[in-house]
Protein: Glutaminase
Amino acid sequence: MDAISAIVAEIAEEMRAQEHRGKVADYIPPLAQVPADKFGIAVVMRDGTVHTAGDAEDPFSIQSISKVFALTLALGAVGDQLWQRVGREPSGSAFNSIVQLETEHGIPRNPFINAGAIVVCDVLLGRLQPREAIGQMLRFVRMVAGDETIVIDEVVARAEQETGFRNKALANYMRAFGNIHAPVDLVLGTYFHFCSLAMSCRQLAMAGRYLMAGGQSDGHSVISDRRARRINALMMSCGHYDNSGDFAYRTGLPGKSGVGGGILAVAPGIASIAVWSPGLNSSGNSHLGQLALERLVQKTGWSVFEPRAQ
Amino acid sequence: MDAISAIVAEIAEEMRAQEHRGKVADYIPPLAQVPADKFGIAVVMRDGTVHTAGDAEDPFSIQSISKVFALTLALGAVGDQLWQRVGREPSGSAFNSIVQLETEHGIPRNPFINAGAIVVCDVLLGRLQPREAIGQMLRFVRMVAGDETIVIDEVVARAEQETGFRNKALANYMRAFGNIHAPVDLVLGTYFHFCSLAMSCRQLAMAGRYLMAGGQSDGHSVISDRRARRINALMMSCGHYDNSGDFAYRTGLPGKSGVGGGILAVAPGIASIAVWSPGLNSSGNSHLGQLALERLVQKTGWSVFEPRAQ
Amino acid sequence: MDAISAIVAEIAEEMRAQEHRGKVADYIPPLAQVPADKFGIAVVMRDGTVHTAGDAEDPFSIQSISKVFALTLALGAVGDQLWQRVGREPSGSAFNSIVQLETEHGIPRNPFINAGAIVVCDVLLGRLQPREAIGQMLRFVRMVAGDETIVIDEVVARAEQETGFRNKALANYMRAFGNIHAPVDLVLGTYFHFCSLAMSCRQLAMAGRYLMAGGQSDGHSVISDRRARRINALMMSCGHYDNSGDFAYRTGLPGKSGVGGGILAVAPGIASIAVWSPGLNSSGNSHLGQLALERLVQKTGWSVFEPRAQ
Amino acid sequence: MDAISAIVAEIAEEMRAQEHRGKVADYIPPLAQVPADKFGIAVVMRDGTVHTAGDAEDPFSIQSISKVFALTLALGAVGDQLWQRVGREPSGSAFNSIVQLETEHGIPRNPFINAGAIVVCDVLLGRLQPREAIGQMLRFVRMVAGDETIVIDEVVARAEQETGFRNKALANYMRAFGNIHAPVDLVLGTYFHFCSLAMSCRQLAMAGRYLMAGGQSDGHSVISDRRARRINALMMSCGHYDNSGDFAYRTGLPGKSGVGGGILAVAPGIASIAVWSPGLNSSGNSHLGQLALERLVQKTGWSVFEPRAQ
Structure:
């Protein structure tokens, strides 16, 4: 067993022993039913080797982590024009806050809060029907993960749709400002399907390789290296809602969390990392997931702020 | 002339040609009088070589860049206890906003907005008289810069004190919540003196070496490598006020700006960089300074999100 | 012609000469098409005499004035339990603001802003189907006005429904907090029909008699005198959105405005007054309507703050 | 004993029996030491008869009730120009909130919240020295109360000054926007002295006569009847901080409360009323004071919304 495998195993061991695990999301039944004691970790190195521990093969609902893939698709579709409709700044407020939209005229702060990701979906629907956009997303994730078995959990998607009143409020509110163009129901239907992607830590870490490797995955170019750097920058600034500064402080890694308890983190040039533990902290980020990444960086020195040879 | 020198010269050339230069801060006369056409850049490499161009030897008022040094001193004095009195999150609002303090009970969002830096000063005054704290700061900056000629501009300090009503409001407001302990006037007197440090790009880039080199400067340890990484993380998340996400997106570097038009940026392990141009954008950051750093990263690949060899 | 008739005629004359008339609401075509030069006034005295001038017989869209009638019905249905779901305080913000709902957990500030009136509709739907609630409203307004010709303008109702994204946002947002119980579409359908009542100044002033006469209308009791006083108090505090304090200051009368340009005002014990002019001020209240009421009070001394004999 | 005397005695009796009395203000020692079981009431009728019960002769700190007298003086000094520097709208937030000042550029919402009253003091200092302004206030209150024994409690004034950090924040903040002209310390010194007026219920009710009697007091004109109506309107809209709507709903009287537990209420043309009980509700208004006024109105029908003969 090599060094990284040993580290990954140690971390899984340590996390198993933690008593405080946060609170599992309970706003929809399919998420509330996930056992709180799950923990998985997968690390894909630049050379393609994969190291996993714990429940790394269990699929879970990636939820807001899908916002990274949706942003990638939208930048592919319209390029920097996207930034006319969504900002690039941390929000300074909760993931589903509506306050900022009022004072900033319906322009969400960044593509990684709910309002921003809903605009991103609307941008994709500028060229596609919802069914096509959902199909495009699924093909994209399967492609970057190199795994055709990834699916969307329709039970989760339906449950989101039945209870997503805050998201309906956000979408209608932005529509009132003219920043949603397609019918609100179609935009949200697309958005909820994206959120309902079910992936394991292994699949998620595989999918994140293009962000680790300057836009490359399996030897072909998914996006430019410049765009990869920029998406990483956004993940660092805005990837953990109103807890992003703290996550950057503790880990020094770009990362994106979801209320399903997953986190995708990137050590540029080195590794793509996925962790999963369903219990959340008060900001809606995986409590043990953040802790596991903090430990990983302590043991490996993968922080982007680590001095490096040029 | 080596590669970096050439790049630095090119950038200075390009900046000189820019027409749009932002708006020079005018809230105190000593800042308003600075010529808008100034531009300087200094790059200190890990090996100690220094590359400068433009007005790199002109001293300017570093203003909020001093918040980085004050934070370093406060962490040295009280360690992580500091975080009980100030947060680590981007503010999502202007540098001098008071709104967040009301809803968050007098705890400022981070040490790089005015309210946070005022708390940092108050922490230093827990052990020192104002005169001592100002002396300690001056000694610290001279030490890390390796330059005994650095001074505090008393004319600027006095002008700040005469007009700093918003800062007085912030300090009194936090005092009402019990988050300022020393008399408000002493805390602000200290704060305004810190802001009034006058340094050239060369001096500032020299001073930033410890943040570039894992806490080391001139062969001795200023702070631990862990603390250096963390300060860099905070600079990336919060160093440009409500424009921090955009700066990270464009440059991929930790940086801290001041309304004097200076920016200190860090490429960990590679270089400490200072730029200066007095014209500011609407968020209070140097317009050309940000642009110069964006160019520098484009030409050198120094973004922390650039894939690197392990 | 008696004194009041003369005053009413003078005011209509004066208003006709005003150059600055405000801005006609243009968010739906049926409102945007109303001629800006319309002005009507009707005063119903306690003894039943009616004084009108100008376009007092033209029906217009009463819009938010219907919130007074909806509140009357909801208090009749559930009494003071209503106040568990909506407050009694001026909002300090715009009529369609969503900010306050986030910090106050989905409880709108008062029943005269949009969010509050939507909750009032939801309360009515606790016992009735939308069609029944709309029928009840129509019967109520016809009864208090003593006029069976009053109708709901279906063209306006449909236009509201097609463009009411902010109201959809408000309703979904409150539903997320559990403060809307019926399906959002049904609640809003009801709300938009209430807003689309078409009434003339004469009809509106007649309808307001029960608020002028301690709850009595045409010799029978519509509501108790205590409830009439309280509804008047709410109209005084909250009846002109974020302009309510100024309206109270200028007129000293309880009143409720609508974006159709109408205002219903009450001089308790003396008169029920309706004015109409489509041009609005920046807070969404009829510019000339407010001015006309100010003049009326100057000429009659009907302010509730006028010293009176006991 | 006549009818009003009997009613006043009954109310004092009933209040004595109340268990829930609110929470005595404790931010300065002189207020914290006031016994919680105090209750006083005084009613001055238009004919000059005075009815009192309970602790109606005990002096207490009138605190924010002084804002009514300060407004009267400022309107006397500069007339409607005052409204360029302070609004006339309820604030929708707490009495000492600073949030609104940021979004509304240093213009406080109304003269009855702290920020607004501080501006009113600054307006008075446009023509007078602090000592003169304090002297003018004392003479004014003595004159309208017809009582030369009224004093300012210097112990309270000093305690306010030592702890008034929020007020210092408000004043400095408005100064930063240019809406405070005199030195902040002088403005606050004046403000704190106004707040420290010590008056009994009897004295306060006597002082309020000019607001009850169309601006007349003791047969001479203090202000015009129009100004008296307008001040009453402001008291109704804004006199109980973020609880003003509820107070209007329950009592139908213009009133102004202070954190010392006093309330001055006005039944125009009928009576000037003062109540006092130190326990406060969560909005900072006297709990029993509000209840006593509610009872008084129930027993007398003095609500301004009571239908009246013309």
Notes: The domain at 64-197 of chain D is CATH 3.40.710.10 (Beta-lactamase). Chain D touches chain B at residues 97-99, 101-103, 165-166, 168-173, 175-176, 184 (CB under 8 Å). The first helix of chain D runs from residue 3 to 17.
